[in-house]
């Protein structure tokens, strides 16, 4: 399929209208950097796209209670440039500045990235390490759950039919954090986030190499064993390498990440 | 003088501003848009095609299948006409066109294409040549399609009742006895990947069929070759088919010969309306790719490192249809062993039909595949012999004026001098650094193709001139370079010249735009056309100035018959015809005669080297330094020579490090530009030296000879050998992406 199949383009004015319009066959359009590719290749044939990009409340970055709130339609580029995000989670702009390519960063959104759940992604991995939550709205109300529970597997999330991701909530942190990825193609082969928490414990999240990011928790830096993580993490062989190779580079990237973290701590 | 200067490309402004008109921009009033229904099986009998649902889509006017082509010759192919326009009873690869949907717009056509129901009965599938050559393999072709144009190829036709599409062999001397007496015999096997010659503009064509005339605008590199296929399909005389190639968005050989033109043409023939076929990259990948190769080499040397014999066995995966595979095989056989003095040689090869996308030309035509095999073998021999790799080549390279293939043109280049430019440029012989390696390689291609080229120059009454040629501008800069040649010959400034190209009805015959031939052969035709025009102008000038012809000559845009007898071109034309009118037409012809009687017209040299670093932890290869030598005899436009060399070498780096089309079962897993990775700006070496060697030893205008492909050919071998020197392990296949390098360093049996 060289061209997009025909579909209706609906542009609801507010969240209420949007929630009325969406269904399995009428998905949310929040940037299209993944969705339109899937449609172009004939994998998806929605009857309409519910364009939520002009709903004002979804396109904002702010603070709510203690959390930084990134609206569901905020682009990677906008989040990268935002001072609130920078001060609350300095690691995040560094990661977002290297997502995809300039076109993807200009149009793609963090919310869309999470909802599509492309396994070869940086966004979910770093958000899990930040202990971020997502807030989902439906006609029945709202619910909030950790990104870690939201991403279930490749292209699969806990989002129910009729729900829209309205925001990502990040608790501000000054913890030393490092994100390191290894990438030879358009998408990362493996991405590793490491965070040294205040109590001295350590959280490592390994993404892109398997079906979904996997967190590993350790009581202290001395407990970490890169080889152990690399042996246990789920690995899916593909064009970037065999399982053996991908486990190996996971170990290498883990080593590089932890060495950097040591430098920060 | 215009030649010898880096005149800016005449297309630079329109290309950078987006005003340039490519084939894809062409539109004809009333045209229909086509979409292609492609096979979802690699090998199957077509039981039934049901277009009824597709025909109900609003805006759809026709669904065309092979059954609708009654009265036409239903196949094409310039050497072997084995390629059905639309699959006839059987599909031979996943993605083969089965039906053509015509609609008012491309969206309706695409929607309807999804609704055409095709029922298949699967046949056994062969993807690798090894499978296709097995005794029980299904036969892909059982007809004899041969058309008998032997000028294309020294290959033999298909072996009956096998999947061998063509065979080629070159031999002399007694290889067996020479190898028996050799001091060292080195045996190696290499695999070259299946590639896609990515061009920014995918294949497209628009065809109109009116009053018995077929008019096609397309992305054809060789419009005159496409004209012949179309004339055969529709039983039209050559003057009944017009093929035009506007600016092409890249070609690299992938647009040589016929591709989507017959689809657009049969659409127009059936619908009575103009039809546009425009593919995306995925469609283009499912149209043509480049041959993958498995090549076995055995070379024998005496104790001083002199070659005593070389033997090559080549197997190419040529895909479902022949396209230009015959020529690729022949060229591979002629190019694999390198420009060395080889007293005993046997190079034999076969191109094998498989259930994969048909393969065809790609920059280098069999040379990159063969050169990897031959040059990596030379480097391993150097190691075994304990002789420096550059020195081993110095001892064996063919000298200027010597013949390395009996019956072919003597070497028109100083290869040893070129080699010194590469090894000095790279700092070869310095102290090795950990994880760093230098590699380089030499190649000489029998380039230029069969020399047939014609050109016209029209000198107008205002002193401006038009150059007409059937050679296609596809980004390589021929429009600029041919203009420079004409400016210099005519003695007028380059901005008074325009070059018009590739319209089979209006521009004179050109065999092909390929084989690096344009500057040399089309350039000669243009040079001769200019001289013909000036000779006529001299005769006219003699009449106008009232002098004997012998007294008259041309100089700097004037006709001169002595110190006080002089007239400008425009004055001569105007005075001779009377009034402000008239023009002079010069004709230039190049054929296989005189200086061009010997083939090839010239040897295209490739001399390239790289300095790489390998990250042993991840296998990532970084190319720090690239050196190319453009041995072009005389650089008519030095900046364009360097641009060609850098482009060619970059495509070579793609094949060496990242590019590969991969079949998993019957279909390609990466027919797109996300998963088929061509080099990006960030992959470019930090240091690039593009040297030019000018020794005036070419047969072309001003001593020029062709470039543009040469600097691709040795890159694969150079990178492989550099990685071997960095890691101590010899690779046997490309691409050497990070996982391949790591697997090379950490084979499973050593884990």
Outline the structure in words.
With 265 residues, chain A is an alpha+beta fold. Chain A contains 11 helices and 14 strands. A 5-stranded antiparallel beta sheet of chain A has the order 4-5-10-6-7. The mean pLDDT of chain A is 96. With 751 residues, chain B is α+β, with helices and mostly antiparallel strands. In chain B, 26% of the residues lie in helices and 26% in strands. In chain B, the strands form 9 sheets. Chain B has a 7-stranded mixed beta sheet with strand order 3-7-1-14-11-12-13, sandwiched between helices. A 5-stranded mixed beta sheet of chain B has the order 9-18-17-16-10. In chain B, helix 9 (325-335) packs parallel to helix 10 (367-385), helix 14 crosses helix 15 (569-577) and helix 16 (638-657) packs across helix 17 (715-727). The model of chain B is unreliable at 148-153 (pLDDT under 50). Classes of the chains: A alpha+beta (265), B alpha+beta (751). The interface between A and B is medium-sized, with 21 and 30 residues.
The main sheet of chain A comes to: 5 strands, antiparallel
How much β-strand is present in the residues of chain A?
Answer: 15-25%
Low-confidence stretches of chain B: 148-153
Structural class assignment of chain B:
alpha+beta
Summed up, the helix count of chain A is 11
- Indicate the overall shape of chain A: globular
> Largest interface, with Cβ-Cβ < 8 Å?
A-B, 21 and 30 residues
Number-wise, the strands of chain A total 14
Low-confidence stretches of chain A: none
Distance N to C terminus of chain B: 65 Å
The CATH superfamily name of the domain at 12-125 and 198-285 in chain B is Aldehyde oxidase/xanthine dehydrogenase, a/b hammerhead
Task: Give a topology summary.
The complex is a heterodimer of chains A (265) and B (751).
Chain A (H helix, E strand, L loop, with lengths): L7 E3 L4 H7 L6 E2 L5 H6 L7 E4 L9 E4 L2 E5 L4 H5 L2 H6 L2 H6 L5 H6 L2 H7 L6 H7 L3 E6 L2 E6 H4 E3 L2 E2 L6 E7 L6 E6 L7 E7 L5 E6 L6 E5 L7 H7 L10 H22 L1
Parallel strand pairs in A: 1-3, 2-3
Antiparallel strand pairs in A: 4-5, 5-10, 6-7, 6-10, 8-9, 11-12, 12-13, 13-14
Helix pairs in contact in A: 10-11
Chain B lengths: L11 H6 L14 E7 L5 E7 L1 H4 L4 E5 L10 E2 L6 E2 L5 E2 L5 E7 L2 H8 L3 E6 L6 H4 L31 E9 L2 H6 L3 E9 L11 E7 L2 E6 L4 H12 L6 E4 L16 H11 L3 E4 L2 H5 L3 E2 L1 E10 L5 E13 L5 H11 L9 E9 L5 E2 L6 H19 L3 H8 L18 H12 L9 E12 L5 E8 L4 E5 L8 H13 L6 E5 L16 H28 L7 E3 L2 E3 L5 E3 H9 L5 E8 L11 E13 L6 E11 L6 H20 L5 E2 L2 E2 L18 E7 L21 H13 L10 H8 L6
Parallel strand pairs in B: 1-14, 12-13, 15-19, 17-18, 22-23, 29-32
Antiparallel strand pairs in B: 1-7, 2-6, 2-8, 3-7, 4-5, 9-18, 10-16, 11-12, 11-14, 16-17, 20-28, 21-22, 21-27, 24-25, 25-26, 28-29, 30-31
């Amino acid at each position: 399929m060289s061209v997009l199949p025909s579909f209706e383009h609906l542009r609801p004015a507010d969240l209420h209208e949007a929630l009325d319009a969406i269904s399995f066959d009428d998905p949310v359009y929040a940037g299209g950097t993944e969705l339109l590719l899937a449609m172009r290749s004939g994998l998806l044939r929605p009857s309409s796209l519910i364009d939520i990009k002009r709903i004002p409340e979804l396109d904002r970055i702010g603070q709510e209670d203690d959390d930084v709130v990134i609206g569901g339609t905020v682009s990677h580029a906008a989040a990268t440039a935002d001072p609130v995000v920078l001060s609350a989670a300095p690691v995040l702009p560094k990661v977002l500045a290297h997502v995809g390519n300039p076109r993807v960063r200009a149009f793609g959104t963090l919310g869309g990235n999470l909802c599509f759940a492309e396994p070869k992604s940086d966004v979910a991995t770093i958000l899990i390490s930040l202990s971020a939550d997502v807030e989902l709205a439906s006609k029945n109300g709202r619910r909030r759950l950790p990104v870690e529970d939201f991403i279930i597997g490749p292209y699969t999330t806990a989002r129910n039919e009729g729900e829209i991701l309205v925001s990502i909530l990040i608790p501000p942190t000054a913890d030393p954090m490092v994100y390191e990825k290894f990438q030879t193609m358009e998408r990362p082969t493996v991405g590793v986030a490491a965070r040294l928490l205040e109590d001295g414990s350590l959280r490592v999240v390994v993404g892109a190499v398997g079906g979904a990011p996997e967190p590993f928790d350790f009581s202290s830096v001395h407990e970490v064993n890169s080889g152990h993580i690399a042996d246990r993490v789920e690995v899916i062989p593909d064009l970037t390498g065999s399982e053996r190779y991908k486990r190996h580079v996971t170990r290498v990237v883990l080593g590089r990440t932890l060495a950097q973290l040591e430098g920060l701590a | 003088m215009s030649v010898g200067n880096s005149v800016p490309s005449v297309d630079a402004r329109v290309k950078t501003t987006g005003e340039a008109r490519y084939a894809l921009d062409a539109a004809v009033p009333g045209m229909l848009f086509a979409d292609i229904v492609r096979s979802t099986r690699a090998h199957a009998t077509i039981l039934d095609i049901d277009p009824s649902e597709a025909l109900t889509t609003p805006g759809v006017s026709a669904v065309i299948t092979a059954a609708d082509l009654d009265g036409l010759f239903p196949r094409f192919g310039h050497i072997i006409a084995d390629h059905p326009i639309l699959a006839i009873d059987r599909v031979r690869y996943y993605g083969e066109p089965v039906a053509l949907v015509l609609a008012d717009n491309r969206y309706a056509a695409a929607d309807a294409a999804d609704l055409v129901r095709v029922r298949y009965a699967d046949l056994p599938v062969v993807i690798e040549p090894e499978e296709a050559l097995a005794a029980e393999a299904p036969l892909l072709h059982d007809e004899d399609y041969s058309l008998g144009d032997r000028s294309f190829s020294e290959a033999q036709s298909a072996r009956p009742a096998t999947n061998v599409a063509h065979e080629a062999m070159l031999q002399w001397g007694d290889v067996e006895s020479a190898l028996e007496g050799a001091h060292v015999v080195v045996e190696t096997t290499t695999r070259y990947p299946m590639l896609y010659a990515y061009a920014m503009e995918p294949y497209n064509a628009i065809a109109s069929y009116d009053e018995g005339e077929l008019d096609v605008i397309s992305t054809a590199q060789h419009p005159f070759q496409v004209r012949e296929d179309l004339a055969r399909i529709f039983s039209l005389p050559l003057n009944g088919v017009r093929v035009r190639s506007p600016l092409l968005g890249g070609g690299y050989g992938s647009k040589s010969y016929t591709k989507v033109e017959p689809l657009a043409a049969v659409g127009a023939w059936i619908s009575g309306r103009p039809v546009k076929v425009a593919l995306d990259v995925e469609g283009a990948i499912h149209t043509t790719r480049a041959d993958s190769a498995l090549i076995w080499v055995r070379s024998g040397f005496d104790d001083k490192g002199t070659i005593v014999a070389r033997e090559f066995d080549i197997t190419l995966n040529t895909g479902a249809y022949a396209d230009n595979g015959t020529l690729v095989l022949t060229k591979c056989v002629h190019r694999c062993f390198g420009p060395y003095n080889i007293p005993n040689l046997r190079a034999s090869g076969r191109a094998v039909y498989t259930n994969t996308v048909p393969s065809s030309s790609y920059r280098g035509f069999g040379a990159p595949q063969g050169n990897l095999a031959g040059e990596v073998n030379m480097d391993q021999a150097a190691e075994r012999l304990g002789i420096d790799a550059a020195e081993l080549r110095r001892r064996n390279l063919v000298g200027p004026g010597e013949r390395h293939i009996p019956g072919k043109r003597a070497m028109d280049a100083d290869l040893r001098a070129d080699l010194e430019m590469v090894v000095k440029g790279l700092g070869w012989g310095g102290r090795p650094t950990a994880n760093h390696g230098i590699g380089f390689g030499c190649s000489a291609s029998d380039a230029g193709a069969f020399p047939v080229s014609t050109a016209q120059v029209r000198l107008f009454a205002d002193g401006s001139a038009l150059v007409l040629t059937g050679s296609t501008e596809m980004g390589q800069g021929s429009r600029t370079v041919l203009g420079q040649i004409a400016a210099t010959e005519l003695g007028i400034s380059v901005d008074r010249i325009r070059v018009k190209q590739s319209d089979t009805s209006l521009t004179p015959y050109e065999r092909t735009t390929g084989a690096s031939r344009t500057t040399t052969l089309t350039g000669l035709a243009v040079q001769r056309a200019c001289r013909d025009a000036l000779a006529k102008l001299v005769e006219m000038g003699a009449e106008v100035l009232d002098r004997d012809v012998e007294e008259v000559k041309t100089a700097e845009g004037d006709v001169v018959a002595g110190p006080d007898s002089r007239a400008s071109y425009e004055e001569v034309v105007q005075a001779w015809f009377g009034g402000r009118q008239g023009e002079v037409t010069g004709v230039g012809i190049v054929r296989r005669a005189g200086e061009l009687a010997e083939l090839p017209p010239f040897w295209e040299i490739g001399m390239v080297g790289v300095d790489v670093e390998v990250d042993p932890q991840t296998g990532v290869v970084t190319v720090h330094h690239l050196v190319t030598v453009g041995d072009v005899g005389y650089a008519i436009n030095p900046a364009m020579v360097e641009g060609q060399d850098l482009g060619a070498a970059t495509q070579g780096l793609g094949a060496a490090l990242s590019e590969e089309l991969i079949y998993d079962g019957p279909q390609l897993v990466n027919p797109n530009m996300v998963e088929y990775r061509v080099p990006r700006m960030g992959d470019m070496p930090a240091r690039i030296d593009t040297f030019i060697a000018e020794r005036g030893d070419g047969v072309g205008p001003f001593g020029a000879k062709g470039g543009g492909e040469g600097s691709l050919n040795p890159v694969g071998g150079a990178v492989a050998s550099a990685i071997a020197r960095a890691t101590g392990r010899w690779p046997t296949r490309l691409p050497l992406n990070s996982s391949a390098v790591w697997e090379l360093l950490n084979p499973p049996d050593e884990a």
